[in-house]
Amino acid sequence: MDCRNIAHSEETSSQRRRFSHRSSLVIIYLIPIFATSLAIWAVLHIWRIQLLPSRFHYQQRATSASDHRWTTCGSTPEEAESRGCRFDILSFAWQTPECYDDELMEDFLKYGTWQFYAYPNRTDVVVNSSTALKGYRSLYVDWEYHVTHCTFTWRQMHRAYAERGYIDSHLDSYKHTLHCQWVLTNRKTRLGMVNVVAEIKYPECKKIEELRGESCGR
């Protein structure tokens, strides 16, 4: 072996030792960093696992609260208001939000200048509409109101089944449908006669899917 080969061999060995030394230093520095990172990840992972049940429990409670709804408005105007119900002037009924058809109420109020009375067969004691809309007492209306009520409740029923998904027990009653048929075919009563009592009602608000399920199970 000549001198050049010996020198080259020694230089190569020296480079390898330097590289090995640098690699060792890098590893020595990386091990603590890696260990620290692993420890931090482990702590965060454990914290996340502990947090998940409480978050899930909170979501369950929030879902349960949002899913809860009143099916009736109680038995008094005060109770109805406390449950978030609104007074349906078309049917003189306190309705839960699911059964209150705001759009139809507006149409009904715009359809005519409705009068409300404190007594039957008298037109001298008029109750203003703002009082009637509060739903705090039963009143009397004329026959024209009654006829118009029946035509609008047909719309209300159709919208309930086709669009809204909820219907109140009074509107869904076949007895009410037969009553409105009789009203609309009655030709003897004058439209201006004040002979209809508009009694405050508190019907049950039903989900139509559940009604269909009940009918299928019979």
Structure summarized in a few sentences:
The chain contains seven helices and eight strands. The protein is mainly alpha-helical. The longest helix has 65 residues.
Describe the structure.
The chain has seven helices and eight strands, in the order H-H-E-E-H-E-E-H-E-H-E-H-E-E-H. It starts with a helix and ends with a helix. The protein folds into two domains: 1-68; 77-217, no CATH class. The strands form four sheets. It has a two-stranded antiparallel ribbon with strand order 1-2. A two-stranded antiparallel ribbon has the order 3-4. Helix 5 crosses helix 6. The chain is mainly alpha-helical and 218 residues long. The chain is 60% helix and 11% strand.
- Read across the widest sheet, the strand sequence of neighbours is 1-2
How far the N terminus sits from the C terminus, by CA atoms, comes to: 106 Å
Specify the structural class: mainly alpha
Please give the largest β-sheet. Answer: 2 strands, antiparallel
Number of domains: 2
- Record field, number of beta strands: 8
Continuous helix count: 7
**Regarding quaternary structure, how should these chains be classified?**
single chain
Q: Tell me the overall shape.
A: globular
Instruction: Please estimate the helix content.
Output: 55-70%
Summed over residues and divided by their number, the pLDDT gives a mean of: 79
The proportion of residues in beta strands is 5-15%
- Unreliable stretches (pLDDT < 50, length at least 5) are 43-66
Give me the Rg, rounded.
Answer: 39 Å
User: What is the string of SSEs from the N terminus onward?
Assistant: HHEEHEEHEHEHEEH
